[in-house]
Design goal:
336 residues; alpha/beta; eight-stranded mixed sheet; four-stranded antiparallel sheet
Length: 336
């Protein structure tokens, strides 16, 4: 498949009274047409900031995209003018945010907000936009769509508001949908409904998806490929099946160890990751995971490992990934 989005050495920082926060530190990845890429990691690791940088939605100041390239359909989105990037946002690349209540305008009807993008990007009349909006609400499973078009955001439940946000994002049939933790604030049953809607619409529309989450359980059933982020770096990247079967970074191993398992025959304890992430103002010289890692060596304290290819389409940023692999094999053998 052809590459749709290619991000190279993306670095984003924020100036604060305490110093410069290094939020994204040389992130490189690509997304193919029709592919779903999962972006996972704990809060503050740079997932959302990297995607806001791609969309050029970083507030300037205090934020700044320090360096990098973002190629979409042959154009570097970091170099195009403001008018051109506005023609891309909401049209060719759309984004669904975590909290729909703060993303929707509380004083405008749902129909007005969906129709705005249709009129702006597709040149539809108000009547055409209204008909299309009704179709979109039906597509995302909102009952009595025509009657609800004139309702305001506060008249919808949390799950229904998120469906409206998805309808808005899909209004112009984007080639890439960025979903920034769209199910975090919802209960488990609604989460399942939202993820099922996105999976169904991906098949119907053929779009690519970047799904941002801290929940590996959610991404397991969605993504084709997963990038694990930590302290603004991509520290492991592999296919969905490969990452869950053969995690090679100590942080990825820790994330998987903190997920409740229903298929365990013994009473397995959840294993927390001890310690705290590094200070993004005063970044460590070596590996950012050094202070929390049980596989660390002196080299890890002095040199930050690059993201290197260690297996077929499996990259990891760790000097001691082979020790991680051996430890996993020994643990698996002891359970059998």
């Amino acid at each position: 498949m052809a590459t749709l989005l290619e991000v190279k050495d993306l670095r984003t920082e924020f100036r604060t009274q305490d110093g410069i926060v290094h939020a994204v530190n040389g992130v490189t990845f690509s997304v193919d047409e029709g592919e779903t890429l999962g972006l996972v990691g704990e809060s503050g690791c740079g997932k959302s900031v990297s995607m806001l940088s791609v969309m050029r939605l970083i507030p300037i100041p205090p934020g700044r995209i320090a360096s990098g390239q973002v190629f979409f359909q042959g154009r570097d989105l970091l170099k195009v003018d403001d008018e051109e990037i506005r023609s891309v946002r909401g049209n060719k690349i759309a984004m669904v945010f975590q909290d729909p209540m703060t993303s929707l305008n509380p004083v405008l009807t749902i129909g007005t907000q969906i129709g705005e993008a249709l009129e702006l990007h597709l040149g539809m009349t108000k009547e055409q936009a209204r008909k299309r909006s009704i179709d979109l609400l039906k597509m995302v499973g909102i009952p009595e769509a025509e009657g609800r078009l004139d309702d305001y955001p506060h008249q919808f439940s949390g799950g229904m508001r998120q469906r409206v946000m998805i309808a808005m994002a899909l209004s112009c049939s984007p080639q890439l949908l960025i979903a920034d933790e769209p199910t975090t604030a919802l209960d488990v049953t609604i989460q399942a409904q939202i993820t099922d809607i996105v999976k169904r619409l991906k098949k119907e529309l053929g779009m690519a998806i970047i799904w941002i989450t801290h929940d590996l359980g959610v991404i397991a059933g969605l993504a084709d490929r997963i990038n694990v982020m930590y302290a603004g770096f991509v520290i492991e990247s592999a296919s969905n099946r490969e990452l869950f079967a053969n995690p090679l970074h100590p942080y990825t191993l820790g994330l998987l160890g903190s997920i409740p398992r229903l298929d365990e025959t013994h009473k397995a304890k959840l294993t927390p990751i001890e310690g705290l992430p590094p200070d993004l103002i005063d970044m460590p010289k070596g590996c950012p995971f050094y202070a929390r890692c049980r596989f660390r060596t002196e080299k890890c304290a002095n040199e930050n490992p690059p993201l290197g290819l260690v297996a077929v389409r499996h990259w990891v940023a760790c000097w001691n990934w082979q020790d991680v692999q051996k430890s996993r094999a020994a643990t698996t053998a002891s359970k059998q």
